[in-house]
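Shift notes (night). Ran Lipopolysaccharide export system ATP-binding protein LptB while the centrifuge was going.
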Amino acid sequence: MANLTLDDICVRFGGLQALTDVAFSVSEGEVVGLIGPNGAGKTTVFNVITGVYKASSGSVSYDGTRITGLRPYQVLSMGIARTFQNIRLFQNMTALENCMVAQHSRSRSGVVGAILRSPGQRREEERIIEKSQKALDFMGLGRRTDEVASNMPYGHQRRLEIARALASEPHTILLDEPAAGLNPAESKELMESIGRITDLGINVLMVEHDMKVVMGICNRIVVLDHGVMIAEGRPEEIQKNPDVIEAYLGQ
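Came back to this:
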């Protein structure tokens, strides 16, 4: 069972305390929302989990294994993928090629095998293409396989980022504002896609400002304010929490 656990994570940048004793977990097949006002520390949490930032104290564990201090590619190889607040696709590559890149952590053929086109390398390439195509199909992009990323509509580029994460064969996906910039119809389709992701047994940790999306698909919600956890609970509990209301609206 793929469990992601944060235990008293603190992050300091010089004299700035970005996170203070942040502790929560995400279990298999669960969608957990991570919300809070701008500057609350949400993306910092993602960066600590994925090895972009080093925690000043505390630990992150995955399936019982401590992953604090691992490099991003090592975290990915353990089954934790992510998307980004600002789209980071390979804009001059096709949708299929973007997803194929995500398979690098699962590839075994070396440079010699690629140069010589060995039978093992050809089989692996076929597997990579198959996995990448399945990820595109899953996200409704199966007909855009050969389309260059920069030519795709914005909403489809958002979907492609998630497809690329899925192509890495993760057990956990971190989605950083996946609904940003989407219209209501696209947001609804996104909610349905995330629901289908959990049906695969993949757990999701999601940062999102669209409260309709958050309240509609999350099993639990964690709320940050100025780097401190101020609430955790079911959506209906969070909606009524006075500390959450004050953090967003003021007294």
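The longest strand covers residues 16-26. Residues 119-138 form the longest helix (20 residues).
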